[in-house]
Structures are given as structure tokens and as C-alpha cells.
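Work package 3, deliverable 3.1, input record:
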Amino acid sequence: MTVSGGDEYDVIVVGAGPVGENVADTVVRGGLSALIVERELVGGECSYWACIPSKALLRPAAALADARRVDGAASAVRGGPNAVQVLERRTAFVHNWSDDSQVGWLDSAGIALMRGSARLVGERQVEVRTRDGGARRLTARHAVALATGSRAVVPDVPGLAEADPWTSRDATSATAVPDNLAILGGGVVGCEMATAFAALGSRVTLVARGSGLLPRLEPFAGEAVATGLKNAGVDVRLGATVTAVDRDTAGVRIDLEDADGTRTIRADEVLVATGRRPATDGLGLDVAGLENVLDVDDSCRVTGVDWLYAVGDVNNRALLTHQGKYQARAAGAAIVARAAGQPVELGPWSPYAATADHVAVPQAVFTDPEVGAVGRTEAEAREAGLPVRTVEYDLGQVAGAALYADGYTGRAKLVLDAERDVILGATFVGTTAAELVHAATIAIVGEVPLARLWHAVPSFPTISEVWLRLLEASRG
Ligand SMILES: Cc1cc2nc3c(=O)[nH]c(=O)nc-3n(C[C@H](O)[C@H](O)[C@H](O)COP(=O)(O)OP(=O)(O)OC[C@H]3O[C@@H](n4cnc5c(N)ncnc54)[C@H](O)[C@@H]3O)c2cc1C
Ligand SMILES: NC(=O)c1ccc[n+]([C@@H]2O[C@H](COP(=O)([O-])OP(=O)(O)OC[C@H]3O[C@@H](n4cnc5c(N)ncnc54)[C@H](O)[C@@H]3O)[C@@H](O)[C@H]2O)c1
């Protein structure tokens, strides 16, 4: 193989997902040159196989459910979503898996693109294997930023890998709806895909090994989502371990063990939704003296390697597009400042530090009911040794919620620092509840005292009035 090259850029970014794009954009805006290397599609997992297609699959059923919850509108709703049209709408949102428009954006932003698979081959040296079988050697004058994302984990269950399981990629790019779908994993992917495929007509069995769904969130969120899934016809099996999987001509056979003993379920497809790991295989990390775990500081610079950054899913800090893009803005700003020889202060809330990763990561889960959460759960706050008190409120008691949906059910909870009287965490569960989270994010990041929040008056009659009720409850 011939290695050609000699090209130099100020910054080389590996991976053109949302995070890599934002690192490159930030450094170019800061006056540096940048090349981004991408081996699949510009836009990454989020645009083509994750956030965008999953939300496109979920939204039609949510729109129908919204109408069904309002007397006077419900009678106009006949039947469920049209699966063929839903899949077509999803395909339109992912531009039929073409990245032409995102390539156009890179061009307009002044970011160079090289298609191929990149790996580190020396200090600030990257080799790109191009699709024509060639290889190019590139040099970064200032920094290399790894933004290679994450990969679905397929657990070591006998027969599972051989049974050709779906990962989230297969689910979000499905061209047909399986009659029977088994889902392993009760986290965000498992719950969202169970919601989507049940609405599209699959008989879904969701197998979770823990005692509840969405185990990283407040327990009441997982309980409400489990109830919602059961109401949608999903067979939710908690505390279940998959012991073996086998595929034959009739589909997939899954052996389970739970509190009631052993049993076998059958499905046309099995979706593995048991978490993700950083995509570092073949990246040449050994060249920088690194193992496969990338430890970074708050500017996302890799510990001990001053020219290397790891940003977004690949650093495993927060596997979310918005948080990865936030890291990208901090890392990009730090790269620009360091290139200019300016001091980069990484104290809390500096423009170069992704401080919010530690205290205020927001997440919206698009199940029915929706979940919006930010900051610490009560359990996390207690584990951190913080002085905790909590307030909760029934969202159905808020006038705006009652008007929004007949018989609205939902709940809100604030985790408070009992000494500083500031918010540490917030969780909202209910129809359209994820929209309530950003107010909590602002309060946490701003460390706004409850006494001052009292003056932030929510409009009547919006669901946001839950904030007033929570503050009233916090006054005892
Ligand atoms: C089903 C699903 C739904 C999700 N929904 C949401 C959501 O609603 N909201 C949310 O915030 N997050 C969501 N996420 C998480 C979100 O998708 C990720 O956090 C986000 O994609 C991370 O962005 P990234 O740029 O770090 O990585 P990616 O989007 O994975 O992009 C990495 C890019 O790097 C490229 N690459 C990798 N290795 C190399 C190499 N060696 N050379 C060249 N290129 C390489 C890849 O091809 C890819 O294009 C979801 C995830 C899943 C699985
Ligand atoms: N709306 C959103 O923001 C959104 C949507 C989807 C995904 N995501 C992101 O993608 C990431 C990955 O999602 P995910 O759901 O795959 O991971 P996850 O970590 O949220 O959940 C994985 C679940 O699988 C379980 N599990 C692990 N190994 C298992 C095994 N061998 N058998 C049975 N269960 C097992 C875990 O206990 C956990 O409950 C998340 O961290 C999330 O941040 C976000």
C-alpha cells in the first residue's frame, strides 16, 4: 500500500458526528484550519441511526396519543399510526442515509473533509485509509481531536451474537415492522424502541435484568414508563436474565430466568439495547501510550498527551448529543487558546471547561409518558454526601396539565441542597414533560437560590406552573 501525503492542518478531527463537526466548527471560527475525517456518513450516528430516526419513529404515535387524550378531539382519531408512512417519514428525516446536505454544511463552514478510516500513527500524525485502498499521512500542527462516538455492546450470552441480533442501528433503520420483537435492556434505547415498535404494530417483549426500567433515573420515572409500556401492550419482564439465544427458521428463541423460574420466548427479531462502549478499536491509541479508556480533563484533553483530545461519546462522560456538542465547544475553545499561547483556566464554569458534565446533564426520554431529567437523582446526591431534601408534586393537579390532556398523569420531583437551598436535580414525568427540564438546567447551572426562583413566575395556565407548586411545597 502506498502512503501519500504531507498535508498539514492546524487541527485534525477524527469522526464527523455532531461532536466532531462542532469541534471543527469552533476551531475554524477561532481562525485555525481544520480537516475532519469520516469513514461513514457526515453527521454520524445521531443523524442517521440514533436521535433523529428514533424520534421520527416515535413522534407520530405521540401526536395521536395527544389527540386521544382530549375529549372533543379523540373522536376524530381512528386507528394507530400508518407504519408505512411513519417509516417513510423517518427515511426523509435521515435524507435516505445520504450526507450530501451535511457535506455542504462542512464546505460552507470552511472545514475540509477526507473520507476514510483514521488512526494515530505518531505524535500529531494521523493516517487515513481511503475507500480506494490508499492511505494518506496527515499532520496536525496543534491538536488531534478524537470524536469517534460509541458502539452498541452485545453481551456475552450464549448464542446471542450468532443469532444476528438487531442493534439500535437496525431498529432505527428498519424497513419493515416485525410481528414479534424482543428487546434486551431496559435503558433508554430499550424503552424508546419498545414504545416505537409497539405503536407501529409489533408485539413487544422487553426484558430487563434490574428491578425497574431506566435505572439511571429516579425510580418513579421507570415505574411510570413501565406502566405506559404495559398499557401499550408491551410484555415487560423485570428482573429477568437471558441465558441463551438461538435462531432457527421460525425466528429467535430466547431463554430467560426470572423470579418465577425459567421460560422461553419467541420473536422474529431480538434487539440488543444493553449499553454502549467508546469506539476506540483500531484508533492506534497505543501510539500515544494509551489503553482503550480515554481519561480526559474538563477541556476534553487526554490525560498525559497534550496534543490529543477525546470529545463526545468516545470519552464516555455523557452519551448524549447535546452534551457532546457542549464538550466540543469547550474543547474547540481550549484548542484555539492554547494554539495562540493563551492561558487556559479549567476552573468551574470557565469557557474551556465542560463543567456541567459533573452537575447538570439534561436528558429527555421520548417514551409515553415522557421523562425529562437533569442533575443528580436523590440517590446520587445522597451517595455524594450532600445534604438532601426533596419535594414532589402531582403534575395532574396543575391547571395547565389538566387542560393539556384529560386525566393527565405525571409527577415532578426536585432534589434540593438543604443547606444552600439550591436545586441539585429535577425529574419530570408526563406528557410533554421533557420540555420542563430546561428551566431546571438553568436553575442548577446558575445555582439560583430558591428564594430568588420564587420571583420566576410561570405563566397561567401552562404546565410550567408546576414550578410554583414545587416551590410552595419546598416552603413546607
Ligand atoms: C438509538 C439511539 C437514540 C439516541 N437518541 C438520543 C437523543 O434523543 N438525544 C441525545 O442527546 N442523544 C441520543 N443518543 C445518543 C447520541 O446518538 C450520541 O450521544 C451522539 O451520536 C454522540 O455523538 P458523537 O459525535 O460523539 O458520535 P457519533 O455520532 O457516533 O459520531 C462518530 C463518528 O465518527 C466516525 N468514526 C468512528 N471511528 C472513525 C475512524 N477511525 N475514522 C473516521 N471516522 C470514524 C463514525 O463513522 C461516526 O460518523 C441516542 C443514541 C442511540 C443509540
Ligand atoms: N433520548 C435520549 O436521550 C437517548 C435515547 C437513546 C439512547 N441515548 C443514549 O444512548 C446510551 C445508550 O443507551 P442504552 O439504552 O443502550 O444504554 P443504557 O446504559 O441506558 O441501558 C442499558 C441497559 O441494559 C442493561 N443491561 C446491560 N447488560 C445487560 C445484559 N447482559 N442483560 C440484560 N440487560 C443488560 C443495563 O442494566 C441497562 O439498564 C444512553 O447512555 C443514552 O444516554 C439517549
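Residues 321-339 form the longest helix (19 residues).
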